[in-house]
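EI: anyone free to look at a 252-residue chain?
SC: sure, send it
EI:
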Amino acid sequence: MTRIRPDRALEERLLARYPLVGGMDEVGRGCLAGPVSVGLAVVSRTTPAVFPAGLADSKQLTPRRREALVTPCRAWVADHAVGHATPAEIDAVGIIGALRLAGQRALAEVAARGHLPGAIILDGTVNWLREPTGPAVAASVDQAASAPAVRPAPSVYTSVKADAHCAVVAAASVLAKVERDALMTALPDPGYDWARNKGYTSPAHVEGLARLGASDLHRRTWHLPGLDRFTGAAEAVVADAPARPAARGLGD
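SC: here you go
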C-alpha cells in the first residue's frame, strides 16, 4: 500500500484566517489498559514551510523512527503538548468524554504559554472536543476530574485521515504516541506485558488478565478478554495511572 504523504495545504488555508492553528490526534483509544492520550501540535504563520523529513502518521512509522522524529517535530512547531485521561476517568465519562478531557488539558497547557490556537484540525469525522450538554452528561462529568476551560474555544475542523495527510496532525500523532508508549513501558507490571503491548489486546495481555484479573490500570467498564477465565481470590492491585506523566520527553 502506498503511504499517504502529508502536506501543509489544510493548515496553510486555516493560517490565512487564524494566527495559530493546532493539529490533534489521539492515541490509546482502543486499549484495554492505561490512559487515552491526545497530542497537540501548534503552527503559526512563521512556522517553516518544510516540516521534518519522514514525518507521517505515527501508525505508519516504526518505534525507532517515531522516537527520532520527536525532537525535529518539537523544533518545527510553535508549541506542543500531550494531554492524558486516566482509566478511571474513561470509566466515569466514557471514551469520548475522556478524549475531550485529554484534549482540553493539552489546550490548557499551550494556552498558559500564550499559544492557544484559533482553529484545531481533528482526525476523523467526530468533533469530540465539543462540550457535552444535558443533565445525564453533566452528572457523569462530575465523577471525573475536570479539565481547565480554555477561552475562546478554538474552531474545530474535522478531516478524514488528517493524521496521514496533514503535517501538523501527523506531528501531534508522533508526539502523543511516543509519550504514551514511554508511559506504559514505565508503569509497574505484574505480568500483563505492557512494555510490548502498551495496553492493547495481545495474547500475553489476555493471559495476564486470566491469571491476575484486572488491575486499577484497566478500563473496568470495558469487556476485558480473559476475565471469564480468572479464578483468583483477589484481583491484582497496581498503582493507578497518573493523569499526566511525571516529566515531558519520556520517549526522547
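EI: The chain has a mean pLDDT of 88.
SC: 👍
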